[in-house]
């Protein structure tokens, strides 16, 4: 009888050992995929791709068990040789090969030149061959940065007493209303894919006080723009016993500060590869919705056409204004009109035409929507009635408020948009592993 104890002794060297000094001049073993082959005649350089980065190995004719002609880009192998110092090599280390063990062999040549520093092809081609395109060092680095953002979101909220939850993505109706719902039959009953975990995270405030979730949300909007996806990842949190909706904004500011510190500390290689300059998060300005529209209109001569919402061009101009005037990369726009916010948004007691809500703009693009919610049952029912909405499909959500709920609020951050703006990309699909839009269901 054999038992597993959670330990496994690898016969290969760790990344730290390869870059350290203890194995210099000694035998080392490295595993990886052949990223590129540079044949110089009697000598060739095999660059191996590992999760930590690229590692250089040296192939000398007559000293290795496999002929060079047998080696192909994309081949996975285990290589044994002598670890040497080489200032010109990546990480100043290289392995002088003696033995190569083939682990897998590609069946056909690469469809894309992933070994190039910049993947010089169209976005459409990159998406068609997404699993291959992401083997490019720069393409892969984008999603390491995205990992850092999600990691920071989780770590920061854990440190602030939040509980992570996981809510269903199949429901009876949407949380946001409107027509942008994916509808389908669920065992002969009508159902929809979740637009947001909004109802569930509010209900869970009554249980845990502070909750968060990272998960997919779905919008059936028939758009085909550079800033929209039909499925995206939302970073959501909801917090109870708040004093003001600005407490939610303060929590997000703290998260952004933590995230930039984490990226700077632990993702320096990726930041360097992508030449990213991290945005300023020490102090984020806030401005009322109506004032923001006026400031942009006056400075840039753009007529206000829609008094109830921000058009994309207005968002860009507001972002530009605060960058020029205050050097700010982010700006909170507060007090959106009640007409454009969901029924559960709390109206401003001083002027019910506006809500205690906000959007966060990052370089002129909305990446977050949040605000304070109505927590009083009679007030919530009055808002539903005033809008002529039916309770059907929301009975259990509404019942929660019959039994007492604290003042609360929260937000949702679009992960792909946040990543896109941080990377300086102009299309959100660049920041999504496998985008879903009107024309793409594969890969």
Write up this protein:
The two termini are 43 Å apart. A hairpin with a 2-residue loop joins strand 2 and strand 3. It is built from 12 helices and 18 strands. The radius of gyration is 26 Å and the shape is elongated. The longest helix has 23 residues. The protein is of the alpha+beta class. The strands form 4 sheets. The chain has an 8-stranded mixed sheet with strand order 6-10-11-18-17-16-13-12, with helices on both faces.
Question: Can you summarize this structure?
Answer:
The protein is of the alpha+beta class and 443 residues long.
Low-confidence stretches: none
Q: In angstroms, what is the radius of gyration?
A: 26 Å
**What percent strand?**
25-35%
Number of strands: 18
Quickly count the helices. Answer: 12
Average predicted local confidence, pLDDT: 94
Structural class, from secondary structure content? Answer: alpha+beta
Keywords, separated by commas or semicolons:
single chain, 443 residues, alpha+beta, five-stranded mixed beta barrel, 18 strands, 27% strand
Layout of helices and strands, plus pairs?
Layout: H1 15-19, E1 27-39, E2 43-50, E3 53-60, E4 76-85, E5 93-104, H2 123-128, H3 130-133, H4 137-159, E6 163-164, E7 170-171, E8 183-186, E9 189-193, H5 198-208, E10 210-218, E11 231-240, H6 246-266, H7 268-274, E12 286-288, H8 289-300, H9 312-326, E13 330-334, E14 347-348, E15 351-355, E16 357-362, E17 365-372, H10 377-386, H11 395-402, E18 408-414, H12 415-423
Parallel strand pairs: 3-5, 6-10, 12-13
Antiparallel strand pairs: 1-2, 1-4, 2-3, 4-5, 7-9, 8-9, 10-11, 11-18, 13-16, 14-15, 16-17, 17-18
